[in-house]
Amino acid sequence: MACLAEHGWAGSTVAVVAERAGVSRGAAQHHFPTREDLFTGAVEYVAEERSAALRALPVQGRAEVVAALVDLYTGPLFRAALHLWVAASNEPQLRPRVTELEARVGRETHRIAVELLGADESRPGARETVQGLLDMARGLGLANLLTDDTARRARVVAQWATLVEEGLG
């Protein structure tokens, strides 16, 4: 994941990843026959680990949940996933795998957000409030890619925490 986050899709060959991992290229290709296998597998693994870590957070309120969800989109996993998404938009052999992976990760992230926020999705607008939060978090992650957006992001996250509290009741 670090290679993908640092070097992008074009610079992250199996050989580069194998060297960084301290294994032979042959060993890497034995487990992951293609670069697509390697990176979709890596994104899936890290997403599962992040989901488990989110569930284990000792979160005390909705404001902390909002901040934790935003953190998902401002770290190296999001940066790596973004490189994978861009590559998938241009590489037909990668697109179906990344589309399916993104749909699955998106559903899981939404489910965890609903659970952590204590949202009742049977209430009108609750589902949209949670999805809006996740969309906003993704946007903040994009804004953070080129410049350090920490100060502005903190203000936006605080405001969204208020909106989520009002929207979910």
Question: Which tags fit this structure?
Answer:
single chain, 169 residues, mainly alpha, 79% helix
Per-chain topology:
Layout: H1 2-11, H2 14-21, H3 25-31, H4 35-56, H5 62-72, H6 76-90, H7 95-117, H8 126-143, H9 150-168
Helix pairs in contact: 1-6, 2-3, 4-6, 4-7, 5-8, 5-9, 6-7, 7-8, 8-9
Brief account:
79% of the residues lie in helices and 0% in strands. The protein is built from 9 helices and no strands.
Molecular shape: elongated
What is the strand content?
under 5%
Poorly predicted spans: none
Instruction: Determine the structural class based on helices, strands and strand pairing.
Output: mainly alpha
Tell me the number of strands: 0
Major beta-sheet overview: none
Helix content: over 70%
Q: Report mean pLDDT, rounded to a whole number.
A: 88
Radius of gyration over all CA atoms, rounded: 17 Å
In the residues, how many domains can be counted?
1
Compute the separation of the termini in Å: 38 Å
Total helical segments: 9
- One letter per element, helices H and strands E, the order comes to HHHHHHHHH
